[in-house]
Design goal:
The structure is a homodimer. By secondary structure, chain A is α/β, with parallel strands linked by helices. Chain A has one domain: 3-Layer(aba) Sandwich (Rossmann fold). Chain A is built from 12 helices and 14 strands. Chain A has a 7-stranded parallel sheet with strand order 3-2-1-4-5-8-12, with helices on both faces. A 3-stranded mixed sheet of chain A has the order 9-11-13. In chain A, strand 6 and strand 7 form a beta hairpin. In chain A, helix 4 crosses helix 6, helix 8 packs parallel to helix 10 and helix 10 packs across helix 12. Chain A is globular and about 55 Å long. The termini of chain A are far apart. The interface between A and B is large, with 53 and 53 residues.
Chain lengths: 387, 387
Amino acid sequence: MRVLVLGGDGYLGWPTALHLSDGGDEVGVVDSFLRRSYDEEMGVDSLVPIEPLEVRTAVWEQLTGRRIETFVGDLVDGDFVVDVVRRFAPDTIVHFGEQRSAPYSMIDRAHAVHTQHNNVIGNLNVLYAIAEVDPSIHLVKLGTLGEYGTPNIDIEEGWLDVEHNGRTDRMLFPKKPGSFYHLSKVHDSHNIEFACRIWGLRATDLNQGVVYGQQTPQTTRDPRLATRFDYDAVFGTVLNRFVIQAVLGEPLSVYGSGGQTRGVIDIRDTVECIRLASVHPAEPGEFRVFNQLTESMSVHEMAKTVADAFPGVVEVENVANPRVEADQHYYNVTFTGLPSLGLEPHLLSRTLIESLFPIVERHRDRVHRTALAPTVQWRSTASELRR
Amino acid sequence: MRVLVLGGDGYLGWPTALHLSDGGDEVGVVDSFLRRSYDEEMGVDSLVPIEPLEVRTAVWEQLTGRRIETFVGDLVDGDFVVDVVRRFAPDTIVHFGEQRSAPYSMIDRAHAVHTQHNNVIGNLNVLYAIAEVDPSIHLVKLGTLGEYGTPNIDIEEGWLDVEHNGRTDRMLFPKKPGSFYHLSKVHDSHNIEFACRIWGLRATDLNQGVVYGQQTPQTTRDPRLATRFDYDAVFGTVLNRFVIQAVLGEPLSVYGSGGQTRGVIDIRDTVECIRLASVHPAEPGEFRVFNQLTESMSVHEMAKTVADAFPGVVEVENVANPRVEADQHYYNVTFTGLPSLGLEPHLLSRTLIESLFPIVERHRDRVHRTALAPTVQWRSTASELRR
């Protein structure tokens, strides 16, 4: 299979590219390095040093003999997208190429506008490129469980059978996203569903939980193949951030009471989910949605898990929640699609958490401690960023 | 009341500004004249000549002594929006300032991107301006019934009480829009609901039906106060287009079987709905949705109504539907919100239709006949436009 990974230089895009390449797929990577520029803007960096994309792909080729073709450019440039899709001629496009931080989207107006423009227009260009070049290309699009919010009913996989006044219809699951970033993903999903309907495109929308972990069997073959490990309050995902706070002797900062419950998934399962979705594509015209998680945990439970695993004293601190979200709520997410395709989950284990501590220890001198505290306030229209 | 009308130079924005000014409100108008530039691009023009905005407002002031302040600029320029909102200090912002044609948004990739960029980013800037300048400003936002599509259940006013697996929640009504334009409005609605939730903004989202008619008690006071009358296949709304086709002796072009049913509303009711929503604002934090129509009709019924009213022979022609839409479907739209605020509808009458014929007759030499036929194909990613 020929797979084009959009955002293939990022935290998950890069390990996905390696996982697919390792499995025998011909892989191409598209990236504009916007994620690296956000680091410059925020004055932070991945805890684990990451190599330039050209070094990464060269090391991979040396080790495996497998080539990963790279295309540098921005998805908001529609002509570029058409050109790349035409030249690479993929069977599958895996789309990670979006601004992926909720707090980043909530910094101020400019960041909200950037996020929605970058994500919605980029995705629209991808849809047009597929429709123009080859409508049989399967789009595997990364969404997030955060699109659903925390409804008081079970969260189904994208669609809901609705009964109302004695009549029924199968409708898109009503969403209540929690940031302008999450909203951009909801907009994307609507645009994709429409493209499937009018052009007969085939798409799988993956509503992913919070990812934890930093290593896959491929990234550990050489330190230069490492993927990002983000710890800052803007781009760090919560479980990874807790691990880093534990090692640094900082209190684990739980927003509000920590009763917020979220779906989570191991990075090794993420890359395998992408592969499974690619191997078993949606039908022409089908807008297929999978919830991509392996278990649900409250933020408090995540903190406790990290604190218990750490060989030393760890303080858990409840800080004022900078977000606007319920911290006591019903949460039950259906996920049968990916398991039915063969996913065998790595559930969150003490072993996994313990494996992260030495990674952090090795790079602890790289941490900018001021970047750990939340600076972006959902209720405010302009946040003061600490550099 | 101080009301700022965004898109106040357009087909409905202008009569709304006059209706509010006539009722004693202090009215400001914001426009970038993008709608006029679309005419240049398409090589068409309003059937009825329209004056430049400065002439329109000058005539209104001469006739009534009432001043309408004007602000020329683009809503995608966020600083401009903040500046205008700060200077005018409105109680209510009525937001018509979006690209409003479904076919225009489906011309090709550039037009889809323009539509979603223009509408979504412009609206986002309006939300930020309200939140920054004065969160008590009531946003009255124009949406469209086309956001809902044609579900097999009753269409409620924006929200739906969902029961699922024995649990319940009140959720946004699931939508299935029919074009990239309609999608942009769905994206707007999601962004607005979120802004109400996190910033406590107050908003009324008006999901409007197909508007017909061209005159209001204010626009008829002087020919220079006239609003647009669009007849082309891109910007003309279906009932107005049928009237024009009848006068020109062209067959009324019904897309497909004409079984598509749509909500419709008289232009005089549109402007009154806006006034009613403004006088009775949403509560702080409330995202209120009204369906803005007065009756539902199939496209075939609309054609028949026009043909019956016309004093002469009119042919009705079923042409291949350029859109992707069901032409046999259930359609039942709830609309109780605006009637409960006091709306007394003008239902579609033979008298109204008859009043349009002489207007068309007077300006028949201005018609570009080639612009009447549909040139934008939903299934194609790039349409050939006739100029």
